[in-house]
Amino acid sequence: MTNTLYDALFAPHANNAAVFLTRDDGSRISYAEFVGRVAQLAHVLMDAGVKPGDRVVVQAPKVTDAVALYGATVQTGAVYLPLNTAYTQSEVRYFIEDAAPTVVVCDAANEAEVSAICPNNAQVMTLAKDGNGSLSVLANDKPSSFETVARGSDDLAGLLYTSGTTGRSKGAMMSHKNLLSNAQSLTELWRITSQDRLIHALPIFHTHGLFVALNTALLAGAEVRFMDGFDIDTMIAEIPASTLLMGVPTFYTRLLSDARLDHALTKNMRLFISGSAPLLAETHKAFEDRTGHRILERYGMTETNMITSNPYDGARLAGTVGYALPGTEVVITDRGEPVTTGEIGMIEVRGDNVFQGYWKMPEKTAEELRENGFFITGDLGVKDADGRISIVGRQKDLIISGGYNIYPKEVEDVINDIDGVLESAVFGVPHADFGESVLAAVVLENPELSTAKIAATITSALARFKHPRQYIIVQALPRNTMGKVQKNVLRETYAT
After folding, report:
1. In this model, does residue 209 exceed pLDDT 60?
2. pTM (2 decimals)?
């Protein structure tokens, strides 16, 4: 029977003896062994009453069986719903109530509290780093083959909830076609093959670590060095034996802080990729100076997977996210109408990668997904004459002060270029006269640098209405688990 995603990512490896995952303890699992494990877990799901279209909620540690559970969910025709391991009990309760799963899989250490918030018709099972979680134990005695459930390209395969920083979290419905088309485009564009060895230090509850990194590796048959998380010594040790790294900007700044990072260490590497948050221009330059490698930055979001990428061949320009992926259309609009080249506007995207809508939110879906198929991303950007996209910021981060539009990134770029500044975040807070006032949170490299010096630089570089009214020196910017700066936290903290 045809199952679009399973047939492309998992079934071809049934007899593949090549290594799929190499774990922190040095143990390995081949592709063929992995496919067998997927089948064993599929039997457990079926025994638990999972039917096609049912949701399987997963808030579990980063272990092999968590990846195999993704495959098993696809093989049984169900919908995989990964949750951030940092979510609290009250947050998890919302997702469970909203998604109404048949099975909930959690860390063995959290079984009691998760069971307490699950309805009686949802079965709770566990995964543990030592392999003794109830799901793993149940799977050990199951057959290593399973009759795959038929699912078509438009059937749901994943349900990913947005971060909810601007309101109630929304479940983005991802079809088999959404996930597969994106993996195919990226695998071809980034030239991923079975000869690659990917360093995987990302979480697997997020689009980046799961649907970008693992789906492309599965599609290509690449080996994956499956790290529990980012550890600088382990990362340094693995780079010489690897060819590919997918990371967030924090990975690269931490690598740059280590003197061991140099040309010799990275000579076997083929490609460094960054996403999930903007990469500073100085990080681009410093990394290239130290290693000879130009980081490839790309752009995507929960509802679309990846949208654009800097080219494999050609200029990878700092401050840009490259061109629309093959099969993906990107337009820049103002109130739905295309703007002229070089003008700032809303980024809208259409293609097989664009989600099916928000779970149980038809009104919200209608607001953000046009009838013609274009998704309104909420990101502001600009397209040059060559078609290259640059992100200006989120629409919700746009500051309107005294009737003027102020794009935080423009101000941040000037501040970040000042010697002694590590990074900054510009945001708006309520102001009785102007509507909003501009503030800047700044992290310093040089503690001797004064806010007066920063202000003087801004004065000479930007129009007066763009000037921050206050510079707040902070030890670090608030970030979520994927490294994105949480400006909503800054707005709340400094609202008065």
Report:
1. yes
2. 0.86
